[in-house]
């Protein structure tokens, strides 16, 4: 009797090579491994970018729970069998492998067995896989590397991931050259900026368990896109939206729209320059999408509107949990989501409001700088003309959101629209 199907296993040699080009940058690949560290309960993560010509290495060290040999084997399986709980940063069971191999040809994972502290290690080597054309991991046999790894542990438990054969980071020719050295060392600066942004809530302990991250021994600081520590930052709206899902349930999406201070309103010039972000002001305006407190997409308006110099002070945070992964269609590298069409329609009003306020604030600051702004009282940074009803309406809406009385503001708006429709139109209600 014939079986009901034919087993067709993919070629390990061909598929592992294809998976190298899944879309990771160096920064996003490191961030994906830090996701694993956080999921393992780590509170301390070190990234060491070590240049040594063709023997250069990258180390990612954490003080998480650690793994035994069985756990290591599962961690290096493409498409791990283990499931993910709600709120976990993992998603597809591919991150450690695809992120690592996107940058190197050999990844070695050392981990302390949480039961007895024993150090276990396994490696995934593309050159070996190409030779045997099979899904196999091996036991590393490098005493010098093991000694180096032991010196990197900061706690009784934890994991160290080592990237070797860095063919995607070093030039194929002359990896020992001064140009290769400078190129390699510059990636540490880019990495620091990326991690400060992507994990800023974890670094600040803002709604997430605090995590310390260091790059080449230097502790990094959170980069808050919304500069909430600046006095003139305004929370224009604060909403929780119900998003229908394919299962028929309603998922929660939190939306907060911020109008950042204009240049003259920042506490210092350095604060203004830092707030510009890695991609600078114009490209950093727009939506900041968080999955389980981890930033996965930033900047731009996702087709809802276009980038505009006049609204560069507008930034909007959008939070969803892992139960909405299917709706947002998050990619493997966790750098891009697909915004549900229905959600775009729901966001339109909030985005219009914050962009209107950002545009008004930008114009006032420009006029003040050119001497065209009238003095009002003590020339407060965000003084407004009372004749501009739309700005007054936005200021009232912002104050209601910040005070926690936004629902009451909506009820008051209904009464004004009913009793004084002309005034309501002037106020933009």
What would you note in describing this structure?
The chain is an alpha+beta fold. It has three domains: 12-219, Histidine kinase-like ATPase, C-terminal domain (Heat Shock Protein 90); 224-369, Ribosomal Protein S5, domain 2, CATH 3.30.230; 386-429, no CATH class. The protein has helices spanning 12-18, 26-39, 69-75, 95-101, 126-132, 143-152, 178-198, 200-204, 269-275, 280-284, 325-328, 341-369, 389-403, 406-419, 421-427, and strands at 44-50, 57-62, 106-112, 119-125, 158-164, 212-215, 218-219, 234-244, 250-259, 286-291, 294-298, 314-320. The strands form two sheets. It has a seven-stranded mixed β-sheet with strand order 4-3-5-2-1-6-7, with helices on both faces. Helix 2 runs antiparallel to helix 4 (95-101) and helix 2 crosses helix 7. The relative contact order is 0.11.
Coarse morphology: elongated
| Biggest sheet statistics | 7 strands, mixed
- Fraction of residues in helices? 25-40%
β content, as a range? 15-25%
Number of domains: 3
**Span from first to last CA?**
74 Å
Succession of helices and strands: HHEEHHEEHHEHHEEEEHHEEEHHHHH
- For the record, the CATH class of the largest domain is Alpha Beta
CATH superfamily of the largest domain: Histidine kinase-like ATPase, C-terminal domain
Number of helices: 15
CATH architecture of the largest domain: 2-Layer Sandwich
Structural class: alpha+beta
The CATH topology annotation of the largest domain reads as: Heat Shock Protein 90
Please, what is the average pLDDT? 86
The low-confidence runs, each spanning 5 or more residues with pLDDT under 50, are: 87-92, 372-387
Walk across the major sheet and give the strand order.
4-3-5-2-1-6-7
Total beta strand runs: 12
Radius of gyration: 25 Å
Keywords: ATP-binding, Nucleotide-binding
Organism: Corynebacterium nuruki
Protein name: ATP-binding protein
GO molecular function: ATP binding
């Amino acid at each position: 009797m014939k079986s009901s199907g034919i087993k067709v296993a993919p070629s390990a040699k061909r598929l592992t090579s294809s998976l190298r080009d899944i879309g990771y940058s160096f920064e996003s690949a490191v961030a994906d491994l830090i996701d694993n560290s956080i999921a393992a309960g780590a509170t301390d993560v070190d990234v060491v970018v070590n240049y040594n010509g063709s023997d250069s290495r990258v180390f990612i060290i954490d003080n998480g729970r650690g793994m035994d040999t069985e756990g290591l084997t599962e961690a290096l399986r493409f498409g791990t069998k283990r499931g993910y709980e709600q709120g976990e940063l993992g998603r597809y069971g591919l991150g450690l492998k695809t992120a690592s191999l996107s940058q190197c040809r050999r990844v070695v994972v050392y981990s302390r067995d949480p039961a007895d502290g024993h150090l276990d290690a396994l490696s995934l080597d593309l050159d070996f896989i190409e030779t045997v054309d099979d899904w196999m991991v091996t036991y590393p046999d490098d005493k010098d590397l093991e000694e180096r790894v032991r010196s990197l542990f900061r706690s009784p438990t934890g994991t160290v991931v080592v990237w070797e054969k860095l063919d995607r980071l070093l030039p194929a020719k002359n990896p020992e050259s001064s140009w290769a050295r400078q190129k390699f060392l510059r990636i540490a600066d880019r990495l620091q900026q990326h991690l400060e942004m992507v994990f800023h809530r974890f670094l600040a302990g803002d709604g997430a368990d605090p995590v310390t991250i260091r790059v080449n021994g230097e502790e990094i600081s959170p980069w808050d896109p919304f500069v909430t520590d600046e006095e003139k930052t305004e929370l224009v709206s604060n909403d929780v939206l119900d998003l229908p899902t394919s299962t028929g349930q309603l998922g929660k999406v939190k939306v907060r729209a911020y109008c950042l201070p204009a240049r003259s309103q920042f506490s210092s010039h350095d604060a203004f320059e830092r707030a510009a972000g890695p991609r600078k002001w114009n490209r950093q305006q727009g939506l900041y999408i968080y999955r389980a407190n981890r930033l996965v997409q930033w900047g731009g308006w996702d087709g809802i509107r276009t980038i505009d110099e006049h609204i560069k002070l507008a930034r909007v945070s959008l939070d969803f949990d892992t139960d909405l992964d299917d709706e947002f269609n998050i990619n493997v590298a966790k750098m891009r989501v697909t915004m549900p069409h229905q959600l775009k329609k729901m966001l339109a009003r909030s985005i219009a409001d914050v962009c209107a306020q950002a545009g008004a604030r930008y114009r006032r600051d420009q006029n003040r700088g050119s001497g065209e702004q009238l003095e009002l009282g003590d020339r407060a940074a965000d003084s407004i003309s009372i004749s501009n009803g739309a700005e007054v309406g936005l200021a009232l809406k912002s104050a209601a959101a910040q005070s926690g009385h936004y629902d009451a503001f909506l009820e008051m708006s209904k009464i004004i629209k009913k009793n004084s429709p002309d005034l309501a139109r002037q106020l933009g209600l």
